[in-house]
Amino acid sequence: MSAAALDADAPRVPPGYLLTTFEYDVDDPIVWPEHVHDEHELLWSAGGMARLEAEGRVWAIPPALAVWVPSRVAHQASAERGARVRATYFLGGGPHTEAMPGIVTGVAMTEPLRVLLDHNLQGTLDEAARRRLQRVILDLLVPAPRESFELVMPRSPHLHMVASAILADPGDKRTTADWAYECGLHGRTLARQFEAETGMSFTQWRILARLQLAIRELTHGRSIVSVARRVGYRNPSTFIGHFRSLTGQTPAEYVRGSRADRPTSD
User: Which of 76, 119, 184, 192 has its CA 20 to 30 A from that of 31?
Assistant: First the structure.
């Protein structure tokens, strides 16, 4: 399906089924404007990087992760050139999704979940087999908010300005004191306000912003050392440590897994 062919109002799940997946292969960078729909949604990537904004948060979506969006929650999505974005929609209401939270949250994109979602795209399944498959998919949905690359955006205009600038260039070398000076604040005041509005320290927030960009750069085939420098690390070992603490993998392991997920050509 064309990446631009997104109808926010039309029902997607066919009658008699629990879910359906739409494929959006992105030729050029794209933004899907803010919208809502009656179905729940699982936004995931079969390759490349997508991003979702909802409820004052920004979520990076590499192939190892997905984001659950409950029905009627306003959200905006975007994707980079070459991304293979997948949106799985789930029938709203009923007991089949009641185990999932009523807020936007991360979901671990495990190999069994990915394989079954891909299998559900096949047109050769009979109706009974497809319904059984979809019930198993629902059982495999596991919220994993700590693994979801979630960035809470601060509400105050001056802090929002700082956060937006860091997202635009996570490798920016300005210190907390530098940013505080630009806002007309003491460094401790900026740090205290930032943590109060985002739930994490200014330093932790910057690390996560850096790792969002790092994921994208790594999937483009750039070296670990060049990516570390691009996102503001002088010492690649520090970058590797931060990356492993968030994803459970080293950058090299992540890249190998990402390449294994790509389709091969005959």
Answer: 119
